[in-house]
Design goal:
13 helices, 13% strand, binds S-adenosyl-L-homocysteine, four-stranded parallel β-sheet, binds iron/sulfur cluster, 336 residues
Length: 336
Amino acid sequence: MTRDELLYYLGSVREGELYGLFKAADIVRRRYCGDEVHLRGIVEFSNYCVRNCLYCGLRRGNDKLRRYRMGVDEVYEVAKRAAGAGLKTIVLQSGEDPYYTLSELCEMVERIKGLDVAVTLSIGERSYQDYRALRLAGADRYLLKFETSDERLYALLKPDSSYANRFKCLEHLSSLGYQVGAGNMVGLPYQSLDSLADDILLFEELELDMVGIGPFIPHPDTPLGGFDCGKIVATLKVVALTRILTRNAHIPATTAVATVDPEGRRKALCCGANVVMPNVTPPVYASDYRIYPKRARWEDSVTKAKGLVCSLGRSVGRGYGDTLKERGRKEGFTPP
Ligand code: SAH
Ligand code: SF4
């Protein structure tokens, strides 16, 4: 698909045309990823953050948020329960929180790896040496969304961050043999269709193993609280187009999609997505991991996720759900 074609679909409001697009994405998903849906259990272990991203409720400037940190033992126990429920991937996510030492983070990864699961980290920008140590500790994958490919918009939304460094981090992660995920938000203030087309082209160009796509959801305790929420249809278009371009990247039906539409996860799974991320953070903490308000929450998230997958006539992935890209992580890989 050319950039013009991407733009055409991003701008289209014709129902029949969009139905065709979603159907095409579903066919591509089936051909390149099969009918397995992979479940990833996400543990949000700290909501402290040193950054001040304008869109996010965890930003350091938000003094209305009650903050928490889980200890290494506590994170391990939660991961153990999730592994016991059959999950084969644990995602560890947090704000950028320098409270944890590198060796504590490595210990967290190492112990969880002992549960026979894949470990994904989503803890923001760090040095090459940190990424290397965490990879050696056993981390398999890393999620670091670039949020928008529009450099000016990026600078506006992430005033204390560097666009160049974000991509440098993605490069480092890839060179260390991580399976790498990036992604964006759809419906950000001042975001153009052109930049959304560029986001999708960049997903393809970076040969990402995973792509996370979610609508922007305004948070009242942030500077962007007064802006409009990203639309479900716009988000589904980006999911579908990303599937068609990247073919076999793992694409989750995100919690953000479920937050703007109660049927959001099901819809995303029907137009390109092949991953669901049940939240296994203890409820006492999860309610304070308010990156945006009114986050969709399943009571018994693993059972609900399995139920959703089965109701679509698809099967729950039984392996680790590693990358489907050919240049995937080799066994016994030693980082440079
Ligand atoms: N601190 C790490 C990981 C936690 S934030 C990082 O920033 O990479 C995880 C994701 O939450 C971000 O990548 C962003 O895409 C999403 N997010 C934050 N605020 C949001 C909002 N208001 N609406 C939708 N998604 C949001
Ligand atoms: Fe921190 Fe990530 Fe939120 Fe930015 S998006 S404020 S880095 S948690």
